[in-house]
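yo

u said u wanted the structure for the complex thing, so here. seqs first:
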Amino acid sequence: MHYVIVGGSAAGINAVEAIRSLDREGKITIISDEEFPLYSRCLITYFLAGKLAEDKLKYRSSDFYEKERVDALLGVKAERLLPEKKKLILDNGKELTYDKLLIATGASSQIVEAPGSDKEGIIGLRTYGDAQSINARMVRVKRVSILGGGLIGLRAAYSLHARNKEVKVIVKSNQVLSQMLDRGAANLVRKKIEEKGIQVMTGLAAVEFLGGKEVTGLVLDDGRRVQCELVIVGKGVRPNLELVEGTGIKAEYGIIVDDYLQTSLPDIYAAGDVAQAKDLITGQSTINALWPCAVAQGRIAGLNMAGKKVKYDGSMAMNSVEFFGLPVISMGITRPREKEYEELVKEGDKNFVYKKVVLKENRIHGMILVNRIEQAGVMGILMRKKADVSPIKTMLLEDRFDFAKILPIIKEGKELFAEQEFEESIISY
Amino acid sequence: MEKIFCDIRKCLGCKSCEIACAVEHSESKNMFKSIREEKKSRQRVVVRSTTKEPFPLRCHHCEEALCVQACMSGAMYKDERGVTRHDPEKCVGCWMCIMVCPFGAISRQENLALKCDLCPDREDSFACVEACPTQALFAGSWEEFKEKLGQEKR
Amino acid sequence: MREKEKSIDKASQELLEIAEKEGIDTAWDRYEAMVPQCGFGELGLCCRNCLLGPCRIDPFEQGPQKGVCGATAEIIAARNLIRMIAAGASAHSDHGRDVAHTLLSAAQGKTKGYGVKDEEKLVSIANELGIKTNGRDKKEIAMEVAEKVFSEFGQQHGELQFSHRAPRKRQALWRKLGIMPRGIDREIVEVMHRTSIGVDNNCESLITHGMRTALGDGWGGSMIATELSDVLFGTPRPIRARVNLGVLKEDEVNLVVHGHEPTLSDVIVTASQDPQLIELARKNGAKGINLAGICCTANEILMRHGIPIAGNFLQQELAIATGAVDLMLVDVQCIMPALSSVAKCFHTKLVSTSPKAKFPGAEHVEFKEEEALSIAKKIVGMAVENFKNRVKEKVNIPDEKMDLVAGFTAESVFRFLGGKYRATYRPLNDAIINGRLRGAAGIVGCNNPKIEQDWGHVEMAKELIKNDVLVVVTGCSAIANAKAGLLKPEAAFQYAGKGLQEICEAVGVPPVLHVGSCVDNSRILITLCNVVAEGGLGDDISDLPVAGAAPEWMSEKAVAIAFYFVASGVFTVLGNPFPILGSREVTDLLTRRLEEVVGANFAFESDPIKAARLMIDHIDGKREALKLRPVMYEKEEVMVK
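structre next:
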């Protein structure tokens, strides 16, 4: 049995572990276009900030591939896929024949389409390579413009602020973190980062980049000019779908997979930022390009590839981040549009506290916690299990809410909360 | 796998387990000295309450540990015994673990995640279980615990 | 707990919301943070009396069943309980001692701020104490009375004078059981002795002495406080007033007195009416000086002067949170050290006055009897000066206030029931005998965040009066019922049963009678003595169709009060139990066996309606034993039973 995995990040690595948990003999080959292996992409901003040494970037130990007996082809790109022949052609000319294939090619930073966007110094922030490029320029950089107020944008802002650069964040929307948070929570985050000296400019976009070979500034859509020696593009990612073009594998935003993470062609699976799977909360087919989702998908794809049929419940939008000591967690739908959602909010501006729960038919469909994040996981399990929270609805946002308060719900829903650890909790209740 | 269980009917909320845990994880491992240590130790088991009874909230060292899956730096991991461990060297305080732990058993101490580690410095016992004056806390396997509860019913 | 579940009082609910918004933590928040509270403590199974410990008895019988000295659950629980009695009795007795001292100082001419207001009562007490009164100056009489009474605190042998007011049968029982108190302080000291390591290790013996100590409070310290306060400040008469946070005024200086002793609050009443100070207030932009009280000291000045009450125990922080209190003046007991944290968020000055009671963040202006009036005026002046520092945007006075009638005493029963021609208890006894009244009950005690504020008191009162039980109230319970409108005469038509309604209508009183502060629980004892003496309802207090209750108690004083009522023969129901349930024997003794000894038991029931039912059943039982006529307007449902 030859398992081939294209992509060596969260999904790929977890797929390896999953396969090996069931099949210690089968051959596994992993192909990654990055030379620098086995690192956690999420740690790049910490590395850039100077808070984490390079050796701490490792997600798994350096001998991981050796220990798991994986043939790792690093710095190599898979160029063409021939599903009828079960062949994969690499950019170094080699050909691989697979029995089971996992496409975990991830996504790449969106590029900005504007005059001058090909100048040097306009960089995304996703890979180790990006971090290296940025580091190489640091000495000449005084001012940084960040395009995009999402997680990448703000994390990048945080990193460069930590390197003592003057940072401006340019956001198209009228709030930061518009995918993750609602207005109330976003305002607290904005207040916190502005307190520290990061400038946030909302409702604006960059329309032109200035300078010669190197960028020296940009022009906003309101006509103002911003001077900067570095532009970081945090405008989201787009899935790397090149490999499936022309293969007949169904793809929309990403590669469409079923409940077992299999694509429309047999023996070919997809997982991670490139995969379009079911969303646990909305039920829609979507990409939640988040580390924990990629981990789960890689793991379950691997199990299915190795012969154990394991159903994937679906991905859930979830984010956890901290800015200057202010932790923020959000899950699911945080800004519901339709009327049938019920929103409960608790605010305490004075101490940067914000709590919100979004309900539909007494089930939690979304939540935001700013500062008081301790019980996020308890809300999370209620979300994932789609439990009816009416008995404790009024308690959800109170400081005293915790796991002990949901014991009655677990007791009532034994089939729902089937894992042994829940039984352990309620056996004497 | 040996871990900690609780018969909550016997828990009186005295919090001896909390104190014992904090002391065990302090530098001096002595109660009177530990409360004066500069970097105060913290308990990893916390006695909360249901609407009526006390409930010691603890890490269950889940078989399918969601915190290990969510951890983006590999700081949360399973050791050879199956214990869910945390490496503070690798932790960046992203709180993904807190985001996914169904029990809320992970807390924050400054920039690091904090949770039960099943007392790695002890040979054969857990500090909280030893300290419990009503023997509500039990150290053993799930089978052993179920058997004990069954016996006591009789 | 949402605001609505924390209190039935709308004013509290409003202020709790404001407190939450402003990030001010209250007793309710601190209680939630404290939960779960240690079960060993709750069960009375923790002993810290010596360093062999601290010891814990395991109620699940797996761990130790004896402390290091060998004390069992019975011993530990009983010891802990009577120490609570000692503490409660100490508080009341010190209060009595202070009042006696004030009378003595006044009689000796050492202070201008006090004098004898009720000469009639002084003479009556003097006669009772065997002191000559004919042709003597009231100051002379007062001096002798004060000295005699004072001596009872330190006396070593003999009996307490006021304990002779009890029915002969009751006194004989006390003597037979060896629980006739010998000296007020002596009994309290003996509690401390008996409960220290290696002394009294028998729970019956401990509880018996506990009863003696409590009796030394009820018929000693508390009664002295009540009687001598009447002498000094006037015996209360029925009076109209208002209650709840809405009594605070936006355009006047708000001075709130909190604590217990009328020696302070009564003089403040005088000082606050000083024309010079009122003029000063006007100069500072206020229309006048508005005095209001919290807790028992509020009850004292309410009963005698009709001063409005701002709130009861759990509202002390909330009063400050209205932003309208210019000065809160405190003396002793039930004052939360948390007050200064709340005061800090506003312009409110917190002033302590007793050398025995210092508080963090409070300014201390020590109150000395000799300079009573001048110190009182100084403090009122401080309040007036602080008025201009009020921050208008932070003022939130809830629009909640209720009318009430208070001022009932054991004497007033004579007066209003007897009418113009004969001052007598006959009509009251007759009403009970012929069934128009089923009986009487006393609801007393504190607030506790463990029970929705005021719910326990009010629901119980309503259930009792609905069943033709006349209710008397004191302390924070009185304030709770007043806020709910039960102290208005009209309340009889809204809530009382037909029999009680008829009486209230005839006499012109509310169905729930406010008889005063917590030391004024002694008024209830006196009333019961008078009822027995009047005749037709047995010959001991334990024969009477009466019951007592403390639905929301928290203080050790409540333990002392509950014990002196039971030891005097009155069945008493407590909301939350005493911390003794860890000992089966002590629980059994107090809830079942005590009746055989002193003619009354304790019961523990936190649901006020169920508790009221226990009291009604008990009262019915007493009626039956006395072979009284059935209750005139018995409720249908009960008859079908």
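Chain C has three domains: 86-233, 245-394, 409-551+606-640. Residues 215 and 314 of chain C are 28 Å apart (CA to CA).
cya
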